Description:
Distance between the termini of chain A: 52 Å
Helix content of chain B: 25-40%
CATH topology of the domain at 82-371 and 439-458 in chain A: TIM Barrel
Number of strands of chain B: 16
Order of helices and strands of chain B: HEEEEEEHHEEHEHHEHEHEHEHHHEEEH
CATH superfamily of the domain at 82-371 and 439-458 in chain A: Metal-dependent hydrolases
Radius of gyration of chain B: 26 Å
Mean pLDDT of chain B: 92
Number of helices of chain A: 13
Low-confidence stretches of chain A: 9-19, 441-446, 454-466
CATH architecture of the largest domain in chain B: Alpha-Beta Barrel
Strand content of chain A: 15-25%
Largest interface: A-B, 72 and 71 residues
CATH architecture of the domain at 82-371 and 439-458 in chain A: Alpha-Beta Barrel
Strand content of chain B: 15-25%
Shape of chain B: globular
Largest sheet of chain B: 8 strands, mixed
CATH class of the domain at 82-371 and 439-458 in chain A: Alpha Beta
Largest sheet of chain A: 8 strands, mixed
Radius of gyration of chain A: 23 Å
CATH superfamily of the largest domain in chain B: Metal-dependent hydrolases
Oligomer: heterodimer
Shape of chain A: globular
Amino acid sequence: MKKLFLLILTFCFSLTGFAQEKGSVLIKDGTLITIANGNMSNTDLLIEDGLITEIGEDISAPRGVETVDASGKYVMPGIIDAHSHIAGVDINEWTNPVTAEVSMEESINPNDINIYWALAGGVTSIHLMHGSANVIGGQNETLKLRYGSGMNEMRFEGAPRTIKFALGENPTRVHGQGFDVQPRTRMGVEQVIRDHFDASIDYQRNRQEYLDAKQAYEDGTRSTPPVPVAKNERLEVLVDILEGEVLVHTHSYRADEITMLMRVFNDYGIEDYTFQHANEAFKVAPELKKNGAYTSVFADWWAYKFEVYYSTAYNASILNANGVKNSINSDSGELIRHLNHEASKAVHYGNTSKQDALKMITINPAAQLGIDEKVGTLEVGKHGDVAIWDGHPLSIYSKTLKTYVDGKKYFDRAEDADDMRLKVDAEQDFEEASGRWYNENGRHSETCLRGAEIRFSKNGMKLQGN
Amino acid sequence: MKDTEIIMTYLKSTIIACLLVLFWGMSAEAQITQKAKIGKFAITNATVHTVTNGVIENGTVLIRGEKIVEVGSDVNIPAEYEQIDASGKYVYPGFFDAGTQLGLQEIGAVAVTNDQAELGDFNPHVRAFTAINPSSVNIPVTRVNGVTHVISMPVSGRLAGKATLIDLYGYSPDSMAVSPNAGLHLNWPTSKKGGWWDDRSDEEVAKEYKEDLKKLNDFISRAQFYDKMMTDFENNPNNKQQPDMDEKMQAMREVVKGEIPVIISVDAKNDILDVIEWTENYPDMQFVLAGVRDGWRVADEIAEAGLPCLVSTLYTPERDYDNYQRPYQNPGKLHAAGVKVAIATGGVENVRNAPYHAGFAASYGLGKKEALKAITINAAEIFGVSDKLGSIEEGKQANLFIADGDPFEPMNHITDVFIRGNKIPMVSRHIQLYQQYLDRGAKTN
C-alpha cells in the first residue's frame, strides 16, 4: 500500500515536473522594450530557469544556454490578454443570476489551437473568463499559454483568484427576459448584487456562530448541540470577495451601471476591481480614477448592441489621459492574434503615446490580474515571458518571430508548420463549415455569451455575444 | 445684503448661467452641423499616390467641383483655389470596401435596425439601394478613416438581393449611389456540414446541396426565358402578346444579360471548385467571388477561370489544421496566381478597419503597392466604375484623402477627406464624444 502511494506520488511529481518545465535563453543585441525603463537598444536579455536574471551589454551565455541573435529586432514582454475565452471548454453556467461557486479552473483545454495562434501573436498569458450571462458569474482562471501541457500546467501559479460580474443587457436578457426572474432591468441588477452580499455577510456570521458553538459543544463547554448552518459554497465565494481575496472583473458598458457598481462596492468595502469592455467608461473617467478602478476595453468594437451605440474608439485614450489604468483586451480568438495592432489603435484614436499603448497590453493587464510583480515588463526577477518581433510591435508590418513562456520557446516562426494541432479529434469533419465570411451579427467567435447563445437560439430566442 | 441685492445677484448669475448654457449649446451644435464644402481646392506639396500613374513627390492636386482637374509636380495654381498645404503628408485615392452591410444595419442586436436580411430564398428584386440610411451614425465614423466607397449588400437566403455601390457622403441613397444596382448577391449553397450542431447525415447534406443547386439553376433558366420573352416583345410590341410582369424575373434581366455581376459568397475549397464549374454554364453572365477563405488552396483554378475575388484578412483560419498566417496570406497568394483581388471586410460599424485588412495583406505577401490597388482601383474595375473612381487622375471624381503617413499603419492619421469634391468635416460620433469627454471640465460628480 505504501509502495503504491509512493508510486502515485512519484507520478504526481513527474506531472508537476512538466509544470515546472522552464527554459533558459540568452537573447542578444535586441532593442528591449522594457515597459518599466523605456527602450534599450543593443541590449542582451538573459533568462535562466524561467526567470530574467540579467539585462545589459555583452552578457555571455552560461554553459548550455542557447543564444538567440536579436540584432535589428525588438524584444518585448509577452502580451497579456485580460479578457479571453480561448482554451475554454464551457463558458457560461447560465442557469442562475448568481453562480459564484462555479469556476473555469476545470474548464481548460490546453490543446486548443487558438492558444498556438495567440502565441504566434506574441501573447503569453490570458485571463480565461467565465461568460457574461449572470450578474455574478463564475470564477475565472489566469493562464500561461503553455500550449499542449495540461490543465494544471496551464495555470498561472500564484495569480490571485478573480471572478466575473456582468451588468446590463446580457444578464437582463438571459434571466429577466429569458426566464422571468430578476433581473429584468439595471435596477434589478443592483439589487441582485446587494441581496447576495447581504446574504453572504449574514451567512458568514451565522456560520461562524454555528462553528464556534459546535466547537464549544465538542469541547464540552456547551451542553446542547447547535442547529447546523450548512456550508454554502456560493456565499463563501462572496465572503472571499468582501475580504479582498478575489479580484472582481465586471462585464459592463454604460456609464450609469459603472457608477452604480462603484457605489455598491464602496458600500461593501470592495477595492480591487476592473471594468471589462466598459465602452462608456470614458464618460466617467474622473470617477473611475477617484475610486482607483481599472478598465479593460476593446480598441474599437461598438454598435453591435444598443448599450455600445454611444461609444467611441477614443475610449482608451480618454481613460489614459484621465489617469485610469487601462488595458486593451480581445474577448476574441481573432483579435488576440494581433493585440499589438489593437493597441496601436490607441495611438490612432487620441494620440496615446506608443509607450502607454504598449503598457495597455503588458503591465496594465498584469496589474488588473494581480500578476504585475511577476510579468508585464522586462526586469530582472520577472518571468521569462517574452516575444521577439521583427519590427516595432505597434507597426502593422511587424511579425512575432519567437515567443517564450518561462524561457521555454512555444512559438518560432522559422519552425512553424502547416498543421500545429497537438491532438486530432478523430470525429472531426474536415470539411465542416465555419460560417459565412461576412458579419452576420456583427461579431466574431469566442464571445461572452457562448453557451447561453446556443441554448437560446435553439429555443427560438436569439442572443448576441458580449 | 438687501433682498433686492440678493435677487439681483441671483438674477445675474442665472443670466450668466443661461448664457453659458446657450453658448455651450451653440458650440456643440456648431460641431454637429459642420457642413461639407465644395468648390476649388489645391492640395499642395504632397506625396501623391495616384495608384495608376505612380507616386508624385511634391505634387499638387487641383479639385474643381466634383472632379480632379489636374495632378502633377508642376501645376500652376490659379489664385481662386483654396490651398491646402500637405507638406510632409500623403494623398491617396479614397479607399473602397467591396463588401459591407454599411447603411443597412445600425445596431446588430436591435432587429428593427437591421435591413440587410429580407425573408425568402430568391430575392433578386430586393435592393440594398432602397434601404441605405444616409444618416447612419456608422457612415461618418467610416469615412473619417479614409474609406469613401462601399459595396453594401443584402445577405439572406440564396439570392439575397442587389448590392449597391455608394459613396459615403450624401443626403439620400440617390445622391450617394454610384451604381444603385452593383451586383446580385448569391450565397452559394454549401456542400459542407454547418458545424457540430448540424446533425444531418452526409447523404442528407449531399442531397440538400443537389436540391439547392437545382432550385438555383431552375430559377436562372426561368429568368433567361423571361428575358427572352420580354426582349422579343420589346423588339416587336405589335406582334407579340405582352408577358405578365414579374418583379423577380424583371430584376434578373440585367443579371442574365451580364450587365451586372453575380457576387457569389463562397469559402470552402470544394464549393469554390463547384462554383467555377457552375459559372461555365452561363457564359453570358458575369461573376465575382466573395469571402473565398480557401482561395489560396485553389488559387490557380480561380485565376484560370478569370474570377475576381473580394477578400479580407482579419479572421481566424478556416480550419483548425490551417497555418495561422493563411487568412493574412490569402490575398497575396491569390494575386500571385493571377487573380484580381479587392478588399471586402464584410462589416458594418467597423468598415473603418478596411485599411488594416489591406495592411495585413500587404505585410503577408501582397506587398504595399498591390494592397493599395486591392483597396482602390481593383474594386473600381471589378464593378465597372474605374472611369470615375479608384485613382487620382485628371477627370476622375475627387475621392481622396490626406494622411500624415502610410494609411495602412494604424499609428498614422487621416487629416482631410474629399468625396465627390466635397471636403468632408472630420467629425463623427466617436470624435465628438472624444472632444466632449477628454476633459470633462470642472464638474466631477
